Amino acid sequence: MPRIFRIIAGILLIGAFASCSTYYQVYEVDSPDIILYENDYFVDTSTSLHVIYDFWSEGGIPIIELANAYPDTILVDFRKSNFVISADTFSFAPKDRPDSVRNYDNDFGYNVLFDAMPGSVYIPPDSSFIFEGILWTFDWSGDVSRKKPSERYIYSSSPQKMDHLFVYSYADPSGTQSPSIRTDTIYHRFYLSSVTQVENATFQKRIQSELLSNKFYVRPESGWPEETRFDIANTLLSLFLGE
Protein backbone atom coordinates (compact mmCIF):
# COMPACT_ATOMS: atom_id res chain seq x y z
CA MET A 1 0.00 0.00 0.00
CA PRO A 2 1.49 3.42 -0.94
CA ARG A 3 2.48 5.50 2.04
CA ILE A 4 -0.10 8.24 1.34
CA PHE A 5 -2.94 5.70 1.41
CA ARG A 6 -1.62 4.23 4.66
CA ILE A 7 -1.63 7.70 6.16
CA ILE A 8 -5.20 8.42 5.02
CA ALA A 9 -6.41 5.03 6.26
CA GLY A 10 -4.69 5.59 9.60
CA ILE A 11 -6.27 9.01 10.04
CA LEU A 12 -9.71 7.60 9.24
CA LEU A 13 -9.19 4.83 11.80
CA ILE A 14 -8.20 7.33 14.48
CA GLY A 15 -11.28 9.38 13.69
CA ALA A 16 -13.51 6.33 13.88
CA PHE A 17 -12.16 5.22 17.24
CA ALA A 18 -11.94 8.71 18.74
CA SER A 19 -15.49 9.63 17.69
CA CYS A 20 -17.08 6.55 19.28
CA SER A 21 -19.23 8.00 22.02
CA THR A 22 -18.96 6.95 25.61
CA TYR A 23 -22.38 6.42 27.18
CA TYR A 24 -23.42 6.74 30.79
CA GLN A 25 -26.54 5.51 32.54
CA VAL A 26 -28.15 7.96 34.92
CA TYR A 27 -30.44 6.54 37.60
CA GLU A 28 -33.06 8.57 39.42
CA VAL A 29 -33.92 7.85 43.05
CA ASP A 30 -37.36 8.44 44.53
CA SER A 31 -38.99 7.84 47.91
CA PRO A 32 -42.56 7.17 49.06
CA ASP A 33 -41.67 8.66 52.46
CA ILE A 34 -39.84 11.93 51.76
CA ILE A 35 -41.58 14.52 49.61
CA LEU A 36 -39.64 17.60 50.73
CA TYR A 37 -36.82 18.63 48.42
CA GLU A 38 -34.23 21.35 48.87
CA ASN A 39 -32.18 21.73 45.69
CA ASP A 40 -33.15 18.13 44.82
CA TYR A 41 -31.84 16.79 48.12
CA PHE A 42 -34.07 14.40 50.03
CA VAL A 43 -34.70 16.22 53.31
CA ASP A 44 -36.77 14.94 56.24
CA THR A 45 -37.38 17.58 58.92
CA SER A 46 -40.37 15.87 60.54
CA THR A 47 -38.49 14.88 63.72
CA SER A 48 -35.87 16.36 66.04
CA LEU A 49 -33.22 14.55 63.99
CA HIS A 50 -33.22 15.97 60.48
CA VAL A 51 -31.92 13.72 57.72
CA ILE A 52 -30.51 14.89 54.37
CA TYR A 53 -29.52 12.58 51.49
CA ASP A 54 -27.33 13.41 48.50
CA PHE A 55 -27.02 10.45 46.08
CA TRP A 56 -25.03 12.07 43.27
CA SER A 57 -21.92 9.92 42.76
CA GLU A 58 -20.73 7.00 40.69
CA GLY A 59 -22.76 4.02 41.87
CA GLY A 60 -25.04 6.13 44.07
CA ILE A 61 -23.05 6.18 47.31
CA PRO A 62 -25.17 8.60 49.37
CA ILE A 63 -23.79 11.31 51.58
CA ILE A 64 -26.09 11.27 54.61
CA GLU A 65 -26.29 14.15 57.06
CA LEU A 66 -27.90 13.69 60.49
CA ALA A 67 -28.62 17.15 61.87
CA ASN A 68 -29.69 17.81 65.46
CA ALA A 69 -32.62 20.25 65.60
CA TYR A 70 -33.28 19.50 69.27
CA PRO A 71 -32.15 21.83 72.11
CA ASP A 72 -30.17 19.02 73.76
CA THR A 73 -27.63 16.44 72.56
CA ILE A 74 -28.96 13.51 70.50
CA LEU A 75 -27.42 10.05 70.65
CA VAL A 76 -27.63 8.07 67.38
CA ASP A 77 -27.18 4.33 67.90
CA PHE A 78 -25.61 2.83 64.77
CA ARG A 79 -25.59 -0.67 66.27
CA LYS A 80 -29.39 -0.67 66.20
CA SER A 81 -29.69 1.41 63.04
CA ASN A 82 -29.56 -0.43 59.75
CA PHE A 83 -29.98 -0.25 56.00
CA VAL A 84 -31.77 -2.71 53.73
CA ILE A 85 -30.77 -3.28 50.11
CA SER A 86 -32.16 -6.02 47.88
CA ALA A 87 -34.03 -7.44 50.91
CA ASP A 88 -30.75 -7.92 52.85
CA THR A 89 -30.42 -6.07 56.17
CA PHE A 90 -27.11 -4.74 57.48
CA SER A 91 -26.30 -2.79 60.64
CA PHE A 92 -24.38 0.44 60.25
CA ALA A 93 -22.04 -0.79 63.01
CA PRO A 94 -21.41 -4.19 64.67
CA LYS A 95 -23.11 -4.82 68.00
CA ASP A 96 -19.76 -4.93 69.81
CA ARG A 97 -18.55 -1.59 68.40
CA PRO A 98 -17.92 0.95 71.22
CA ASP A 99 -19.51 4.38 71.43
CA SER A 100 -17.76 7.39 70.02
CA VAL A 101 -15.66 9.22 72.60
CA ARG A 102 -16.43 12.68 71.25
CA ASN A 103 -19.23 14.90 70.07
CA TYR A 104 -19.65 15.60 66.38
CA ASP A 105 -19.97 19.20 65.33
CA ASN A 106 -20.76 19.44 61.59
CA ASP A 107 -18.20 16.71 61.04
CA PHE A 108 -17.72 14.57 57.96
CA GLY A 109 -17.02 11.34 59.75
CA TYR A 110 -17.03 7.93 58.13
CA ASN A 111 -17.74 5.69 55.19
CA VAL A 112 -19.90 2.68 56.08
CA LEU A 113 -17.91 0.32 53.84
CA PHE A 114 -14.33 1.41 54.46
CA ASP A 115 -14.27 2.99 57.92
CA ALA A 116 -15.05 1.66 61.36
CA MET A 117 -18.36 3.35 62.09
CA PRO A 118 -18.69 4.10 65.81
CA GLY A 119 -21.32 2.19 67.75
CA SER A 120 -23.08 5.48 68.47
CA VAL A 121 -22.42 9.19 68.13
CA TYR A 122 -23.38 12.23 70.19
CA ILE A 123 -24.58 15.16 68.09
CA PRO A 124 -24.82 18.52 69.93
CA PRO A 125 -27.63 20.99 69.17
CA ASP A 126 -27.35 22.76 65.80
CA SER A 127 -24.67 20.28 64.70
CA SER A 128 -24.44 17.40 62.24
CA PHE A 129 -22.83 14.03 61.73
CA ILE A 130 -22.12 13.36 58.04
CA PHE A 131 -21.10 10.03 56.55
CA GLU A 132 -21.15 8.02 53.33
CA GLY A 133 -23.63 5.16 53.06
CA ILE A 134 -23.70 2.05 50.91
CA LEU A 135 -23.68 2.25 47.10
CA TRP A 136 -26.70 1.37 44.98
CA THR A 137 -25.09 -0.42 42.06
CA PHE A 138 -22.35 -0.38 39.44
CA ASP A 139 -24.42 -2.65 37.19
CA TRP A 140 -25.11 -1.59 33.62
CA SER A 141 -28.90 -1.82 33.14
CA GLY A 142 -30.19 -3.97 30.30
CA ASP A 143 -33.56 -2.16 30.36
CA VAL A 144 -32.26 0.73 28.21
CA SER A 145 -30.14 1.06 25.09
CA ARG A 146 -29.36 3.59 22.38
CA LYS A 147 -32.65 2.64 20.69
CA LYS A 148 -34.57 2.76 23.98
CA PRO A 149 -32.75 5.38 26.03
CA SER A 150 -34.97 5.54 29.12
CA GLU A 151 -37.18 3.44 31.37
CA ARG A 152 -39.33 4.42 34.35
CA TYR A 153 -40.41 2.34 37.34
CA ILE A 154 -42.96 2.56 40.12
CA TYR A 155 -42.13 1.40 43.63
CA SER A 156 -43.53 -2.10 43.21
CA SER A 157 -41.70 -2.75 39.92
CA SER A 158 -38.41 -1.02 40.74
CA PRO A 159 -35.36 -3.22 40.10
CA GLN A 160 -33.80 -2.13 43.38
CA LYS A 161 -34.87 -0.64 46.70
CA MET A 162 -32.92 0.71 49.65
CA ASP A 163 -34.20 1.49 53.16
CA HIS A 164 -32.58 3.30 56.08
CA LEU A 165 -33.54 2.98 59.75
CA PHE A 166 -32.01 5.33 62.33
CA VAL A 167 -32.46 4.77 66.08
CA TYR A 168 -31.75 7.76 68.31
CA SER A 169 -32.43 8.95 71.84
CA TYR A 170 -32.51 12.23 73.76
CA ALA A 171 -33.57 13.69 77.07
CA ASP A 172 -37.30 14.35 77.17
CA PRO A 173 -38.24 17.08 79.73
CA SER A 174 -41.91 16.09 79.47
CA GLY A 175 -41.17 12.60 80.83
CA THR A 176 -42.08 11.38 84.29
CA GLN A 177 -38.45 10.99 85.35
CA SER A 178 -35.73 13.61 85.40
CA PRO A 179 -34.14 13.33 82.96
CA SER A 180 -36.33 10.95 80.99
CA ILE A 181 -34.60 9.36 78.00
CA ARG A 182 -36.80 8.96 74.96
CA THR A 183 -35.93 6.70 72.02
CA ASP A 184 -37.32 7.30 68.52
CA THR A 185 -36.77 5.89 65.07
CA ILE A 186 -36.72 7.27 61.55
CA TYR A 187 -37.42 5.00 58.58
CA HIS A 188 -36.93 5.99 54.93
CA ARG A 189 -37.62 3.93 51.83
CA PHE A 190 -35.97 4.66 48.48
CA TYR A 191 -36.23 3.04 45.08
CA LEU A 192 -34.82 3.43 41.58
CA SER A 193 -37.53 5.27 39.64
CA SER A 194 -35.85 5.63 36.25
CA VAL A 195 -32.73 4.94 34.24
CA THR A 196 -31.61 6.96 31.21
CA GLN A 197 -28.74 6.23 28.85
CA VAL A 198 -26.98 9.40 27.67
CA GLU A 199 -23.98 10.16 25.50
CA ASN A 200 -20.92 11.65 27.14
CA ALA A 201 -21.43 15.22 25.84
CA THR A 202 -25.02 15.26 27.13
CA PHE A 203 -23.87 13.79 30.43
CA GLN A 204 -21.25 16.50 30.90
CA LYS A 205 -23.81 19.24 30.18
CA ARG A 206 -26.28 17.76 32.66
CA ILE A 207 -23.81 17.58 35.54
CA GLN A 208 -22.97 21.24 34.99
CA SER A 209 -26.52 22.56 34.59
CA GLU A 210 -28.79 20.35 36.69
CA LEU A 211 -29.32 19.68 40.37
CA LEU A 212 -28.63 15.98 40.62
CA SER A 213 -28.76 15.07 44.32
CA ASN A 214 -31.59 12.59 43.69
CA LYS A 215 -29.68 10.88 40.85
CA PHE A 216 -26.48 8.88 40.33
CA TYR A 217 -24.57 7.52 37.38
CA VAL A 218 -22.93 4.31 36.19
CA ARG A 219 -20.10 4.04 33.67
CA PRO A 220 -20.35 1.46 30.87
CA GLU A 221 -19.19 -2.04 31.73
CA SER A 222 -18.40 -2.99 28.14
CA GLY A 223 -17.01 -1.23 25.09
CA TRP A 224 -13.76 0.61 24.68
CA PRO A 225 -12.87 3.14 27.38
CA GLU A 226 -11.68 6.43 25.93
CA GLU A 227 -8.00 5.83 26.79
CA THR A 228 -8.12 2.32 25.29
CA ARG A 229 -9.67 3.55 22.05
CA PHE A 230 -6.90 6.09 21.53
CA ASP A 231 -4.21 3.54 22.37
CA ILE A 232 -5.62 1.15 19.77
CA ALA A 233 -5.93 3.93 17.19
CA ASN A 234 -2.33 5.02 17.71
CA THR A 235 -1.12 1.41 17.43
CA LEU A 236 -3.01 0.93 14.17
CA LEU A 237 -1.66 4.18 12.82
CA SER A 238 1.90 3.01 13.56
CA LEU A 239 1.23 -0.23 11.73
CA PHE A 240 -0.17 1.55 8.68
CA LEU A 241 2.78 3.89 8.64
CA GLY A 242 5.11 0.94 8.81
CA GLU A 243 6.82 2.22 11.95
| CATH fold field value of the domain at 31-141 and 154-190 | Immunoglobulin-like
Low-confidence stretches: 222-230
Number of distinct beta strands: 14
CATH architecture of the domain at 31-141 and 154-190: Sandwich
Oligomeric grouping of the chains: single chain
Number of helices: 3
Biggest sheet record: 8 strands, antiparallel
Q: What's the alpha carbon Rg, rounded to whole Å?
A: 24 Å
Label the overall shape: elongated
Order of helices and strands: HEEEEEEEEEEEEEHEH
Helical content band: 10-25%
Strand content: 35-45%
Detail the topology: elements first, then pairings.
Blueprint: H1 3-19, E1 23-30, E2 37-38, E3 41-44, E4 49-54, E5 63-68, E6 74-85, E7 88-91, E8 107-111, E9 120-123, E10 128-132, E11 150-152, E12 161-172, E13 180-199, H2 200-209, E14 215-218, H3 226-241
Parallel strand pairs: 8-10
Antiparallel strand pairs: 1-13, 1-14, 2-3, 3-4, 4-5, 5-10, 6-7, 6-9, 6-12, 11-13, 12-13
